Amino acid sequence: MWKKLIAYYKPHRTLFFLDMAAAFTVAVCDLFYPVITRSMINDYIPKRQMRLMLTWAGVLVLLYLLKAALSYFMQYYGHVVGVRMQAHMRRDVFTHLQKLPFSYFDEHKTGSIMSRIVGDLMDISELAHHGPEDLFISIVLLAGSFAILCSINLWLTLIIFCCIPVLVWIAARKRVKLDQAFTDSRVKIAEVNANLENSISGIRVSKAFGSREHEVEKFQQGNLAFERSRSAAYKVMAEFFSSTGLVQDLLNVITIAAGGLFWYWGRIDVGDFAAYLLFVGIFLNPIKKLVSFVEMYQSGMTGFKRFLEIMAAEPEREAPDARDLGKVRGEIDFKDVTFVYDESKTVLSHISLHIEPGRTVALVGPSGGGKTTLCHLLPRFYDVAEGAVSIDGVDVTQATYESLRRNIGIVQQEVFLFTGTVRENIAYGDLNAPEEKIVEAAKKARIHDYVMTLPDGYDTYIGERGMKLSGGQKQRISIARLFLKNPPILILDEATSALDNATELLIQQSLDELCRGRTTLVVAHRLSTIKNADEIVVLTDRGIEERGTHEQLLSQNGVYRRLYDAQFKM
Length: 570
Hints:
Blueprint: H1 2-7, H2 13-44, H3 50-99, H4 102-107, H5 110-152, H6 154-161, H7 164-201, H8 203-208, H9 212-264, H10 270-312, E1 332-341, E2 345-355, E3 360-364, H11 371-377, E4 386-391, E5 394-395, H12 401-406, E6 408-412, H13 422-426, H14 435-444, H15 448-453, H16 471-485, E7 489-493, H17 501-515, E8 519-523, E9 535-540, E10 543-548, H18 550-556, H19 559-568
Parallel strand pairs: 3-8, 3-9, 6-7, 7-8
Antiparallel strand pairs: 1-2, 1-4, 4-5, 9-10
């Protein structure tokens, strides 16, 4: 895991090494004060060497000015290294998320993923900056102070350093508990974020149902679980810091007591004893840094571990010899297709369906029959367990994802619009489209006239997920997006089922124009919208039960007839 973290330092290694050089210089500056103090007490003051005393006092001032400048460099550019690494990781994880299959997002909550990208990476950034810096300074100070302490009085130094193994033993013993506690608290806060994201997204639903107390109670359950988890983590931290703090305090007592005895026995003079006390203070500072480093390390590495879990998730894989489909005609074949969801539930079993270019085929049937799943196999949102799906005779697994999805446009019942303006959302169909193409697409989708009534026209901000628009307006923007994309294959998945009759009629006109000359798969529950389809396929959990035109299926008095009668003979 450390190798993967170190790899993120490489693009910033120049700045990192400058930061380490500054840290080394700062540590050396700290070692000068006790040495000069010892000389002043032992030599300069007793011998009244005022010139030397003032000279070395001036040297200390210059050293501390240098230390201040280097500390500024470390605080600023050291954090810059951490932030750049964090940004690099965030870019990598976001790019990787774009490559993950639909199944990953079926199994992981949005809020939990966001928690890993934002909160966890923040802790990694702190570790990336402070970790090496604190560790390096601590080692330099420990080594330097130990060497100087030994030169002053070897035996006194050995007595004091007997406390170090105790500190190491405490840190080693508590490390595992700290790791478990921090991991658990990470999981709990991710759950809190997931519930929070879900509740805020559904705030209109909860208000409509008057379920405020239920939402508060549901949130509080996760919040209390996090509180308990974090409290347990702080309990382990408290044990760690209190025990290490006790050892450090005892170290001070040992230093004063042992140093006093050594002075009483004539084994050390006053200047050496004063310098010794100062060096022990310097010696304790890196120990305190190392103790704090343990907490930072556990928090940062726990976050990095969770970052790596996302990066280890298997992305969508293209065949090594995957080809660009170019502009397809739109001939579609489902050949003996079987799809199993989550390795336990068979959704589609041995489905075969041929669709000629430019034809409109409607999929109808009871919920759970696999209509939407069948459509999702075409752009490879999911892969088949058995059989094959092909476009223009090319197996979709042999096509690049980019070229495959470039040729397919999807209009869904639940429209997703990005936070931004009307123009930005329509332009998503072709990010390089000029203004006139965007306006033309809006006119075809019958949304242009409405857009022109808005305060800022196409630059009007539509709110998060287009919340400032009605359902019909959002649907028309999504249709404009597809007019701009101009794909040869269309998938209309319950595109008008959530709209009122007047809006549905208006949008159906836009859809009819959009479908003209394109191969179209329509998933519909409202049978009135698919009467004119070239072919209607009745799909149930037993597979394809019926197929034909609207009139042919009505005359068969089968499943389609029963569905039709249920809708129109009430």
